[in-house]
C-alpha cells in the first residue's frame, strides 16, 4: 500500500528525474569531462528539490553500468562514444530511477533505438497481474528484432523507500524461472540494455560506487575515526549508494579509501564493481520507473514532464 504522501513524493522524484534526463540529453557534448557532467546533473537534482538516489552513472561504450566519475577522473566524452546516463532522484527516500543513451556517431543510432523501443513497449504493457517474464519477453523480442542481444544478467527491479533494489527482478528476457508479477501499491524500474555483444556483463576490477550496511555491533569495535565517518555517511545515505568524490571536501581521499577498505572487509559496506560487457560489445540502455497505485492506476513516474 502507498499512502497519498508517498505517491506525491514519488511523483515529485519522477518529475525531477524526467526533466534532468531530458536536460542531460541536450547538455552532454563531445569534449566534456565525465566529472563535469556528473556534477551538473547532481547539482540540478538538488536545485529542483531532490537528492541523488545514487551517484550519476555515466557508462561509456562496452561499460554497461556502475561507473561514476572518480574524484580525480580525467575521462572525456569522445565523438565515437555511446554514453549511458543513469540518473536517480529521491524525495524523502522515494526513488525515481531513469536512464537514457546519447550517441555522437550515426553508427550507434539503431543500438540506442533498440533499447529505447524496448523500454517503451515494456512500460506500455506493465499492469497489475502482468508477469515480469512477459515484460522480459517483449524486451528481448524488440531488441532481437534489431539484430542485437539484451543483456541477460542485468534486470529491472522493484523499488522501495530508501531501497533502490528491493527484491523483485524484472528480467530482460523471458525468464521461465521468474514467476513474479506486478502488484498494486508497488514501484518498479524497467531497464533494458541492448548490446552488439553476447549479452552478458562481468565485474571489472574498478569500483566507483559503494553503499553502507548497518551493523552497530561490528561498527562499535572499530576506531572512533571510522565510526564517525560511517555515521556521517549513513545519516545522509542510509543504505543508498554513494561515491567517494561526494566526501572529499571533508576527508582526504587517501583516508577515505583506507576507511572504506576496512568497512568492506568488516561487511559494513558493499561495493558495486563497474560492469563491462563480456565480449566488449557496445551497450545502450533506457530506463523508466513505474508506480502502480493501490487501485491499479499506473503512473510512469519518469515520463511525466
Ligand atoms: Mn538506473
Ligand atoms: Mn535501475
Task: Give structural attributes.
single chain; 305 residues; alpha+beta; Creatine Amidinohydrolase; Arc Repressor Mutant, subunit A; five-stranded antiparallel sheet; four-stranded antiparallel sheet; 7 helices; 33% helix; 25% strand; binds manganese (II) ion
Could you give the topology of this structure?
Elements: H1 4-27, H2 34-47, E1 51-52, E2 57-60, E3 63-65, E4 82-91, E5 94-103, H3 109-125, H4 132-145, E6 149-150, E7 156-159, E8 169-170, E9 186-190, E10 193-195, E11 201-212, H5 216-219, H6 224-237, H7 253-265, E12 269-277, E13 283-285, E14 288-292, E15 298-300
Antiparallel strand pairs: 1-4, 2-4, 3-12, 4-5, 6-10, 7-8, 7-9, 9-14, 10-13, 11-12, 14-15
Residues 97, 157, 189, 191, 287 line the site of one manganese (II) ion.
Give a verbal description of the structure.
With 305 residues, the chain is an alpha+beta fold. It has 2 domains: 4-203 and 275-303, Creatine Amidinohydrolase, CATH 3.90.230; 207-273, Winged helix-like DNA-binding domain superfamily/Winged helix DNA-binding domain (Arc Repressor Mutant, subunit A). Helices cover 33% and strands 25% of the residues. Strands 8-7-9-14-15 form a 5-stranded antiparallel beta sheet. A hairpin with a 5-residue loop joins strand 14 (288-292) and strand 15 (298-300). Helix 3 (109-125) packs antiparallel against helix 4. The two termini are 25 Å apart. The structure holds manganese (II) ion (2 copies). One manganese (II) ion is lined by residues 86, 97, 99, 191, 287. The site of one manganese (II) ion (MN) has 5 residues, from loops.
Amino acid at each position: 500500500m502507498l499512502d497519498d504522501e508517498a505517491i506525491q513524493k514519488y511523483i515529485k522524484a519522477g518529475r525531477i528525474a524526467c526533466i534532468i534526463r531530458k536536460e542531460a540529453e541536450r547538455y552532454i557534448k563531445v569534449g566534456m569531462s565525465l566529472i563535469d557532467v556528473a556534477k551538473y546533473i547532481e547539482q540540478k537534482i538538488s536545485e529542483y528539490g531532490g537528492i541523488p538516489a545514487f551517484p550519476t552513472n555515466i557508462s561509456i561504450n562496452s561499460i554497461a553500468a556502475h561507473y561514476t566519475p572518480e574524484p580525480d577522473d580525467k575521462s572525456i566524452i569522445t565523438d565515437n562514444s555511446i554514453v549511458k546516463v543513469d540518473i536517480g532522484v529521491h524525495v524523502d527516500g522515494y526513488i525515481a530511477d531513469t536512464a537514457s543513451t546519447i550517441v555522437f556517431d550515426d553508427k550507434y543510432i539503431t543500438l540506442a533505438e533498440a533499447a529505447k523501443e524496448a523500454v517503451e513497449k515494456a512500460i506500455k504493457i506493465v499492469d497489475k497481474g502482468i508477469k515480469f517474464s512477459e515484460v522480459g519477453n517483449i524486451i528481448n523480442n524488440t531488441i532481437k528484432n534489431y539484430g542485437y542481444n539484451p543483456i541477460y544478467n542485468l534486470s529491472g527491479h522493484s523499488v522501495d523507500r530508501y531501497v533502490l533494489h528491493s527484491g523483485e527482478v524484472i528480467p530482460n528476457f523471458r525468464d521461465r524461472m521468474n514467476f513474479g508479477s506486478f502488484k498494486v501499491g508497488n514501484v518498479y524500474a524497467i531497464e533494458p540494455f541492448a548490446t552488439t555483444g553476447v549479452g552478458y556483463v562481468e565485474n571489472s576490477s574498478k569500483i566507483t560506487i559503494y553503499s553502507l550496511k548497518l551493523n552497530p555491533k561490528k561498527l562499535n569495535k572499530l576506531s572512533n575515526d571510522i565510526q564517525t565517518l560511517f555515521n556521517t555517511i549513513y545519516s545522509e545515505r542510509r543504505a543508498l549508494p554513494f561515491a567517494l568524490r561526494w566526501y572529499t571536501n571533508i576527508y582526504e581521499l587517501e583516508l577515505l579509501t583506507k576507511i572504506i577498505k576496512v568497512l568492506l572487509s568488516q561487511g559494513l559496506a558493499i561495493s558495486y564493481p563497474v560492469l563491462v560487457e563480456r565480449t566488449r560489445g557496445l551497450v545502450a540502455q533506457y530506463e523508466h520507473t513505474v508506480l502502480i497505485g493501490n487501485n491499479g492506476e499506473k503512473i510512469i513516474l519518469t515520463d511525466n514532464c
